[in-house]
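lol ok so funny story. i was supposed to be doing the assay writeup but got distracted and ended up predicting the structure for this chain instead. priorities right. anyway since i did it might as well share w the group, maybe its usefull for someone
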Amino acid sequence: MENKKMGKCPCCEYYSIGFGEEGLWDICPVCFWENGGDGPNHMTLEEARKNFNQIGAIDKKALEFINPESKNKYKRKMLNKIKVFSFGFKYFSEKLPECNLRIDLRNKIQNPQDHLPKGVTGRDAIVIKTIFKSEQNKKYISSLMKRIQKKINETDLEVFIIAVGCRSGIHRSVVVADYISESLKKEGYEITTEHINLKIR
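and the output, tada:
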């Protein structure tokens, strides 16, 4: 996602062209529609939309010019607000917190609790360092961010809620929730972060 204000392609409806007059005659990198009406595209907008929904481009010839990653780079909806919270599964055995994307770290990142001083949390530097010194953890978190961005790009919601859970909601989930929040904040989103189980220790 780009930080500057983008205009919406009239065909695929991704925010992938220049805003306002700056986007006139731009070619959408997602569907290959040229933003100048039916003429330069040699088809009606209705035909182009139908083709995009069926094959992912305005026509078959356009497919060779489209980068498959474009759908991940550009947003389809102007989502601005994202809420990220961490929680512990052991405190929500019956009903889990409501969210749009739930991330379970219990089998993805090893619990560092046994190797840490008593009383520290995921907000402490020693815990953050322990999590990120593992190449396996870094690889998982990197793939997780790609998954999150894809989900965000596809959403129709104005506010998107991400729940990050580990066993107790004290270490792993706090570190990863903070990392997600800081990463998305750099992308220009308005972020709210909450650590539910740090309050009830």
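Helices lie at 38-41, 45-55, 70-73, 125-132, 135-154, 172-186. Residues 6-73 form one domain.
back to the writeup now i swear
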